[in-house]
């Protein structure tokens, strides 16, 4: 199957939609330009059955492609070109230094030679892309190059589910890069120069931590923690099926005692995980402060989570909406957007690839 794993690092692409596939569901976003700002044309999501996507791997192509098709119809978009993301754990990235005077052909050959040192697979088993970042400081004859590689079958699985839903993948990004683009757009609006921002995406099974200063990533890690634990506690305590527990968790339709017996311990655990991640950051880097915490992901809007994290960390904490400052299309339901926006960080970042220069 022919697929261009190029465009990973910001080459110009035509109008497209951002499509995020996670273990809990699929999310879709379409953006357009509105003067000097962006406009949210539409967004939609569809849940996935348990086991359809496991650890970023697509286990059931039919279930995932059906969910994508339903989300696409629900959104009202007509765009069929999509930008998709690869889970960070399935992509190897490495910054290398090469001579600046190489021709394009020699640069590609040199990148492949260098890549073979870092990639534990045969090169014919991987999709490889690279981007020239720019000159090396204090070494004008050299350039920094970022290379990225992932197993072919990982890319092809994602291509297959999109194509089965009638869509055409044209850009393959890395989910953490897409989320970072969305975070950086908000940070430039709200955070002062030199401030250190910690973004916590709390998903179903994984909490992804990105710490940025002036748009530059200075620290990143993943921790095994997410909303799955809260759902499992509800299942254990009340005997609901997993699917029932998910619905009741979101609606708040739970027995008396839920708040004190289940939710509060989960919130304390979440705040402890955030605190631990910040301590890891302090002990493994020269930095000793964080000025702002942003919470995102499907768990960000759990009642009292912001307050619990702020109290435990003693750092200003808020929920991040990737659509903050955007104009809203006529089809966008604002009430639904306020509730669901934090879960669309990756999908929004992918949709922003439309505007890459």
TrEMBL record:
SUPFAM superfamilies cross-referenced by the UniProt entry: Actin-like ATPase domain (SSF53067)
Signal sequence annotation: none
Residue span(s) of domain SHS2: 16-183
Superkingdom in the source lineage: Bacteria
SMART domains in the record: FtsA
GO biological process entries: cell division
Matches recorded under InterPro entries: ATPase_NBD, FtsA/MreB, PilM, SHS2_FtsA
PANTHER family (UniProt xref): CELL DIVISION PROTEIN FTSA-RELATED (PTHR32432), ETHANOLAMINE UTILIZATION PROTEIN EUTJ (PTHR32432:SF3)
Protein name: Fimbrial assembly protein
């Amino acid at each position: 199957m022919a697929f261009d794993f190029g465009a990973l690092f910001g080459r110009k692409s035509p109008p497209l939609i951002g499509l995020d596939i996670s273990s809990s569901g699929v999310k879709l976003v379409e953006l357009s330009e509105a003067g000097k700002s962006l406009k949210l044309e539409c967004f939609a999501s569809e849940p996935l059955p348990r086991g359809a996507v496991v650890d970023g791997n697509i286990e059931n192509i039919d279930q995932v492609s059906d969910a994508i098709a339903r989300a696409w119809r629900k959104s009202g978009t007509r765009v069929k070109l999509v930008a998709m993301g690869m889970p960070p754990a399935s992509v190897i990235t490495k910054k290398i230094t090469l001579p600046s005077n190489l021709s394009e052909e020699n640069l590609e050959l040199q990148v492949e030679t260098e890549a073979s040192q870092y990639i534990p697979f045969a090169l014919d088993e991987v999709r490889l892309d690279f981007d020239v970042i720019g000159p090396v400081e204090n070494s004008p004859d050299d350039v920094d190059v970022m290379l990225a590689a992932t197993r072919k079958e990982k890319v092809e699985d994602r291509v297959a589910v999109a194509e089965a839903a009638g869509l055409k993948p044209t850009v393959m990004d890395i989910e953490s890069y897409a989320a970072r683009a969305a975070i950086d757009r908000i940070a430039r609006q709200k955070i002062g120069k030199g401030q250190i921002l910690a973004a916590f995406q709390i998903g179903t099974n994984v909490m992804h931590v990105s710490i940025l200063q002036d748009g530059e990533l200075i620290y990143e890690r993943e921790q095994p923690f997410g909303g799955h634990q809260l759902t499992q506690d509800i299942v254990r305590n009340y005997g609901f099926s997993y699917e029932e527990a998910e619905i009741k968790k979101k609606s708040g339709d739970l027995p008396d005692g839920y708040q004190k017996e289940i939710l509060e311990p989960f919130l304390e655990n979440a705040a402890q995980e955030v605190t631990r991640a910040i301590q890891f950051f302090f002990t493994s880097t020269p930095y000793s402060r964080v000025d702002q915490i942003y919470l995102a992901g499907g768990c960000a809007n759990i009642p009292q989570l912001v307050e619990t994290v702020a109290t435990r960390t003693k750092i200003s904490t808020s929920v991040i909406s990737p659509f903050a400052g955007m104009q809203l299309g006529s089809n966008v339901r604002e009430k639904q957007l306020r509730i669901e926006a934090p879960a669309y960080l990756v999908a929004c970042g992918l949709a922003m690839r439309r505007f890459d220069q």
